[in-house]
Amino acid sequence: MTTPKESKKETWITIFIFLGLVIALTSPLHYAIVNLYPSRIYVGAIMWCPAIAAIITLKLKGRKMSSLHWNWGKWKYIRWSYFIPALYGIITYLLIWIFELGSLADENTITEWGKELGLFGIGTLNPTSITIIAIILLSTVEVIRASATTLGEEIGWRGFFIYELRKVLSFSGVSVFSGIIWAAWHWPLLVYYSNNVLLEFITFFTVIISMSFIMTYYTFKSKSLWPAVIFHAVSNVYIQKIMPPLTLKVEGTEHWLGENGIMFAIVTSAFGIYFWGKAIKNNL
């Protein structure tokens, strides 16, 4: 008969097999990003490495892929997983505008944004129309497109990894541990793209661990990986694609803006603490 101690040991072995596979699969792609051009071509492949690692781990352990929590779950969790990251992205930039760390984009900037998105040639569009159409398209079509890559991450991180951690750690432990691993997994990208490596490491780890609390909450509540897929895609789209083009940088405040910015870290921390409290209240 397997004792609880042996069961925990087996779980940790499974966890480290998964993490070892993640490292083995992503390391060549991280090397390619840092050393080859164009670097971004490898990002989509990297995002599917956690899924591949999870599937291989399941095969090695003689478990079925159906254990990855494919069920859709209740629609309310899908809706909240869209709304929450959109809300914290908007709040982040509202605070940036209010405190004059950046300003609303002018007409020329909006026009250039429209050109980048291919919105010209379909009639005469003014800056207001460009903004409305861009937000609608990015918040729908782009979220669907982004979900194709975030699915790869979330099959691994939320469909498999946090459920293994749940066998040996509390909700808080799962959120912190998985958040640290998830953030550390991005480190070559941070080093390659960062302007201030130390500051952006601090803010990025803060953001990712905070997001981990929220995504772990919705994953466990829904018993599904899909809220995390939607959450991740919406967060990426709002904080990378929608809000930055609507903002003009102010000299000397660049470190407050963007997904590695101080303001985003502050806002996501507040959300993470709130969901930490909700999870404790709900005995997750």
Q: What can you see in these coordinates?
A:
This protein is mainly α and 284 residues long. It has one domain. The protein has helices at 4-35, 43-47, 49-60, 75-98, 107-116, 127-166, 171-185, 187-193, 197-222, 226-242, 262-281; strands spanning 102-104, 247-249. Strands 1-2 form a two-stranded antiparallel sheet. Helix 3 packs parallel to helix 6 and helix 4 (75-98) packs antiparallel against helix 11 (262-281). The protein is globular and about 65 Å long. The two termini are 28 Å apart.
Low-confidence stretches: none
Helical fraction equals: over 70%
What is the number of helical segments per DSSP (H or I, 4+ residues)? 11
Strand order of the largest sheet: 1-2
- What is the number of independent domains? 1
What is the number of strand segments?
Answer: 2
Order of H and E elements? HHHHEHHHHHHEH
Cα gyration radius (Å): 20 Å
What overall form do the CA principal axes indicate? globular
Strand content: under 5%
Q: What is the terminal-to-terminal distance?
A: 28 Å
Mean pLDDT: 91
